[in-house]
Design a protein that fits this description.
Layout lengths: L1 H8 L6 E4 L3 H13 L3 E5 L2 H4 L12 H7 L2 E4 L2 H10 L8 E3 L6 H10 L11 E8 L6 H13 L4 E8 L4 H10 L6 E3 L8 H8 L4 E4 L14 H9 L3 E4 L4 H4 L7 E3 L4 H12 L2 H18 L2 H14 L1
Parallel strand pairs: 1-2, 2-3, 3-4, 5-6, 5-8, 6-7, 8-9, 9-10
Helix pairs in contact: 1-2, 7-8, 7-12, 10-13
Length: about 300
Amino acid sequence: SLGYATVIKKYHPDIIYSHFMSESSTMAYIVCKVLNLPLSISAHAKDVLQTNGPTKENVELIKLKSEYVNFVSVCNKNAYNKILNSIDTKYHSKIHLEYHGIDSKKVLEKFKLAKPIKIYDINKLVLFTIGRFVEKKGFEYLIKAVKVLKDKNVDFVLFIAGAKGPLYQKIVSMINEFELNDNVKILGNGEGVDFDTIISYFKISDVFILPSINTKSSDADGIPNVLIESAIFGVPIITTDAGSITEFLVNEKDALIVKQKDYKQIAEKIMLLNFNQKHKDYLVKNANKKAITMFDINKNVQKIEDLLLLN
């Protein structure tokens, strides 16, 4: 922190705005104390909720920092309420619920211009998921769900755009064990793929599935951007009630929401959507409208700008 203070001092900042209620904002707090600068923090999900995961990612000094700062912006109610419950009520006005912003016009333009990925059998049901190979993404339950589909002779392919994470090899082993190599394809060999490639897979997807869970270490998703993107692209969604997902999506109105870890229910919902185009269209229409309104980048960034300028 003292080293950063030495560097930052040269730039004569008026305010420091730090991401995450974990190690990074603790360092920023010390820098601000040393340089006598105001601090604001952008808080997210596991950096507010997680207590016994990797030390540098766990929530730190939540009361001290939240009461010191000019403001904290939090992108979901789950984390927002955790902070409020951790501090004196006289500081509650410093905590602001501000959702992420997505430029829906820009990403829709990319979507329109993207070339769909060619697959060898266009009659297959195409399933898609995105996320790091970490516990909270719940990929193991999705693999179990598609094993149910295979056992029921459903003709499908599941594409996983999975980024680096400790559970990559476990998921590969499950695919091999369940003899799903012809049905499940991991894009980028567990290293992730670029956004343009992801859009191309969205373009051919019949269903987007995010089987998130809340972990024992209290790690959980906020409102994942991939769900917002799926809604904007008009791809029907099956997901769970983990984290703050239901703050965005309502079961049977915007998406199909299943219980965490319930792989049999995931399989049932996939088959339900596969045979009910009217239901898919209804979910897509509602989710799309909500995503564009709730996560309007111009409106949401303006709120952060106002907070920075007022403080």
